[in-house]
Amino acid sequence: MTNVVITAYDIERRAAFFFRSSRAREDPTYDFTLVDAARATAAAPTYFEPARVHDVAGAAGYALIDGGVFALNPAMTAYAEVAAGGRADDIELVVSLGTGSHTRRIAFEDARGWGQIGWARPLIDVVFDGLAQTVDFELGHILGPDRYVRLQTRLVDASDALDDAGDRNLEALRREGARLVEEHSADIDRIVAGVTSAA
Predict the structure, then answer these.
(1) Which of 17, 97, 104, 186 fits as disulfide partner to 8, beta carbons 3.0 to 4.6 Å?
(2) For residue 6, with 0-12 CB atoms within 10 Å meaning exposed, 13-18 middle and 19 or more buried, which class applies?
């Protein structure tokens, strides 16, 4: 049976929250419906309201938002789950699929005069980018290039706005995706070969 780990963040307890199928099978107070887990991990602040979820045992409720606020690249979370079970050496390949990185430059001349208001939005992007890139750096060193692949494109043509679903941006995202596939064709071939041989 394949184990699943899904990230969320508990805004009332101010703590990272992990839906873990391995724990849910053993303890109903850690068991949640898939709908609740999906709703919680997709509750991106400012786009969707927090999700109020309860375990199936009825023991506790949680107010959760998108786990991307702390685990934008959740590959380290998956690695930690496997390593905690004593199976780190069994990992053949970790594949991390990004959604596109920011490319808008923050000019020193602009940022040097920003206060709290000026930094509010750019700082969120900087923190998210930094978190994702740190995980990439860490897993790249822990697992090496033979066991870790990060597929991430720089959003050169497409907008990085989460809510930009306009026709022009969707087409730009398709182009960015095609460029990613072309640039990483060898990695993708290796991933497919690994998945098909394991099936």
Answers:
(1) 17
(2) buried
Q: For residue 172, what pLDDT is reported?
A: 95
pTM: predicted TM-score of the whole model, two decimal places: 0.84
pLDDT > 70: what percent of the chain? 99
